[in-house]
């Protein structure tokens, strides 16, 4: 098993990353005939699992939908948008509705096993996390959703660098997604989704100039 | 001006991106003597501005802190954490406290100017956004924060691919950051920060194995 220290420092050229961020856009129309290949898809899944989260708690499930029948039912619960049906892979980001000390202990157990350290050595870590839980009791669902949005941001950027198109989808009916995905009585709730695949050559949105406020408005320096 | 269609499809090798995500970790101790060079930093700023957001509304300001005196005051309002002081650049992500139709019109004005389309042609787009605003009146601040977390996710991933170290910082006192950054009477509030720079060679955290729940727990497929 390798630690971060064992990996060489990455050095993708800045111009290549910026080119990718200019290339990407929120795809309106996917090419239903083009599917993401297994090697690239497996890298995307691994990147999802590697998403950083607060305290390392990973309060999420990533639901990957490729089944044609299920996909065909999604536009009706996505404000009529066709991307969930026409894309190659739909990622639904579901995050914890609440969190209890049992969850924290399950997480610490995985820390203890991975790093081969006694669980007792994590007592202080546990105390800090439980303190956070207590202080944030009324906003754990909100916090978990925010962690899900870290995953969304990393997913969209990573997809772009790989040359995979995406469309983030906030315009969905989360409760109805929960029912379709069997989440409704579980610990995780649908928060947001991201359709992934390849743009249709006739998607006119690819020819729209990207709109951003000028850099000297969005960025302030001290 | 180029549109997304005018850029070549990116193709960073999957293994290179995954290597970078294994290389990254939440840096505990930055090397205070190593600064991010201007070319890379300018790419990071451009990547921030290019972050996708719901409806393209960009409800954020990115505050970049490099001033040594200001940085020295930040550990005291960051639960004692030293990263804001020792890092090269600290990015504070501030997002809208609320949003009114004036903001939406300013945004649509920028769409109209960039794409050289009459403002009237955006009437339907305006209606949809105002409908969203109305339906979400009690959670605009939460929504804007989520958009800020998209930026955080894209920022951490992009930094890793560039070989820049980072530490996401939720453990800060947002109200005190607001005061130090002059945000307290403005439209934007501090939500989260990200310290960026280079890991100190003595940061033991780089030698910890990364802990993740197994992929078949975090990912479900339909």
List the helices and strands and how they pair.
Two copies of one chain form a homodimer.
Chain A: H1 14-23, H2 38-49, E1 60-65, H3 68-73, H4 83-86, E2 89-96, H5 101-115, H6 123-135, H7 140-162, E3 165-169, H8 174-181, E4 188-197, H9 215-218, E5 219-221
List the keywords:
NADH Oxidase, 222 residues, four-stranded antiparallel sheet, 9 helices, homodimer, alpha+beta
Structure report:
The structure is a homodimer of 222-residue chains. Chain A is of the alpha+beta class and 222 residues long. The first copy, chain A, has a domain at 24-97 and 144-202: NADH Oxidase, CATH 3.40.109. The first copy, chain A, is 43% helix and 14% strand. The first copy, chain A, has 9 helices and 5 strands; from the N terminus they run ααβααβαααβαβαβ. Chain A has a 4-stranded antiparallel sheet, sandwiched between helices. The mean pLDDT of chain A is 96. At the A-B interface, α1, α2, β1, α5 and α7 of A face α1, α2, β1, α5 and α7 of B. β5 (219-221) of chain A pairs parallel with β1 (60-65) of chain B.
Q: Going across the major beta sheet of chain A, what is the strand order? A: 1-2-4-3
Strand percentage of chain A lies at 5-15%
Question: How far from one another are the termini of chain A?
Answer: 41 Å
Query: In CATH terms, what is the fold-level topology of the domain at 24-97 and 144-202 in chain A?
Result: NADH Oxidase
Mean pLDDT of chain A: 96
**Quaternary organisation:** homodimer
The main sheet of chain A comes to: 4 strands, antiparallel
Classification by helices and strands of chain A: alpha+beta
As residue ranges, the low-confidence spans of chain A are none
